[in-house]
Prior knowledge:
By secondary structure, this protein is α+β, with helices and mostly antiparallel strands. The chain has helices at residues 34-48, 62-65, 67-75, 92-104, 114-128, and strands at 2-3, 9-16, 23-29, 54-58, 78-82. The protein has one domain (2-131): Nucleotidyltransferase, domain 5. The chain contains 5 helices and 5 strands; from the N terminus they run βββαβααβαα. The strands form 2 sheets. The chain has a 3-stranded antiparallel sheet. A two-stranded parallel ribbon has the order 4-5. The radius of gyration is 15 Å and the shape is globular.
Amino acid sequence: YISIGPKRHVYLCAILDLYSRKCIAWKVSDRIVAKLACDTLEIAINKRKPKEPIIFHSDQGSQFKSASFRKLLDEHQLLASYSKPGYPYDNAVTEVFFKYLKQREINRRTYHSIQEVQLSCFEYIEQFYNNY
C-alpha cells in the first residue's frame, strides 16, 4: 500500500518476469480487490501473449485466490503457484522489488492523490527499474 495523506491509501499490483526481473505489468487502485489483480494480469497477458502454459506465482493474497482471478488464470492456461503462508522467501523477487520501490521512490515523497502515485510509479518502474 502507498499512503496518500492521513489514513488514506492506494494499492499497487505489479507482475514481474522471474527470469528478467522486469515489471511487465502494474496498476494502481484505491481498492485492493480481485479486480485490481485481474486488470493487472490482463495487461501482462496482452503484452506478452503467452503461447504455452506458464507459472504465475504470488503470495496468499485473497485477490490472487479469488474465483475471478483463478478463472482468468485458467482461461489463459496459467498455472497458479502460491507462497507458503507467512513465508516471504518463496516470493523473494517480488518482495525485493517492492522494498526498493519504497526505499528509492515511495518513501521519499508525500502523495496527495492517486494520480501522483501513478506518475511516481511510472517514473520508477518504466524509466528506471525496467532499464536497470
